[in-house]
Design a protein that fits this description.
single chain; mainly alpha; Non-ribosomal Peptide Synthetase Peptidyl Carrier Protein, Chain A; globular; PP-bd_ACP; ACP-like_sf; Carrier domain-containing protein
Length: 109
């Protein structure tokens, strides 16, 4: 019996679509070397865009490193931390954030 992956199925589906040298019957394991399975620079950019769209986030430039895209575990770690750090929908997300206190209450009448 295969162990459950530490990421959602949607992540694996997106990742698989960009790994041209990964056989359909080969599992995506956490330490799989992505470059060995076809993740070149062009595929990395395409994967980045697909993940940002799917998870509604932006990966900061400082995280766009070879280490981030080395293995599924490394990549998911970055995505997961960014998803966890996203502000909740009850928090202001625009330039008026300074008008609210830390509880989301308006400070300017």
């Amino acid at each position: 019996m295969m162990a459950e992956q530490p990421w959602p199925q949607s992540f694996e589906q997106i990742l698989r679509a960009h790994l041209t040298f990964l056989p359909a019957d080969e599992p995506v394991v956490p330490e799989l070397p992505l470059v060995d399975r076809g993740l070149d620079s062009l595929a990395t950019v395409s994967l980045l865009l697909d993940l940002e769209e799917a998870f509604a986030l932006t990966i900061p430039d400082e995280l766009l490193t070879a280490k981030t895209f080395a293995t599924p575990a490394d990549l998911w770690s970055v995505i997961d931390s960014l998803v966890a750090a996203k502000p909740s929908s009850s928090q202001p997300i625009d330039g008026d954030a300074h008008l609210y206190d830390r509880h989301g209450h308006g400070g300017i009448e």
